[in-house]
Amino acid sequence: MSAETRLACLRIALVAVGLIMIFAVYPLFQLWPSGWSWGHGHSHYPMMIVGIYATLGVFLLFAARNPLEHRSLIWFTVWSSIVHGGVMAVQAITDDAERGHLVGDVPALFLIALVLGWLTPRQAAAAA
């Protein structure tokens, strides 16, 4: 894949992930709580996560304009998704009530990390 094609695909991925984080996380909590919403019952956690991911989504949309200038934000998204998904995977495996996350938000976070990590140019490639 050429550098230009990869950058175009990265822009598309950033817009898609940004829009998903802004507009889809809350509905997923409501429609599929066993796969997306933690701490079932009354918890303030879901709205805190919605706020954090919506904010990240807005900044990913900004980054899509010029991804090379925003590599640190993209790499933060990649690595925080890996760490967050990993922690959630362990919790879902050890807590029967949270098993649904192994087919919901856990693979979604790993997919985001995989796609953005694969498409984002490394520093040497970006400088060329």
What would your notes on this structure say?
This protein is an all-alpha fold and 128 residues long. It has one domain. 76% of the residues lie in helices and 0% in strands. The protein is built from 7 helices and no strands. Helix 5 packs antiparallel against helix 6. The longest helix has 24 residues, at 71-94. It is elongated. The model has no long low-confidence stretch (mean pLDDT 92).
Keywords:
about 130 residues, mainly alpha, 7 helices, about 75% helix, elongated
Helix tally equals: 7
What gross morphology would you assign?
elongated
Task: Determine the strand fraction and express it as a percent band.
Answer: under 5%
Average the pLDDT over all residues and give the rounded result. Answer: 92
State the distance separating the first and last CA atoms.
15 Å
Low-confidence stretches: none
The SS-based structural class is: mainly alpha
Return the string of H and E elements.
Answer: HHHHHHH
Instruction: Indicate the radius of gyration in whole angstroms.
Output: 16 Å
Largest sheet: none
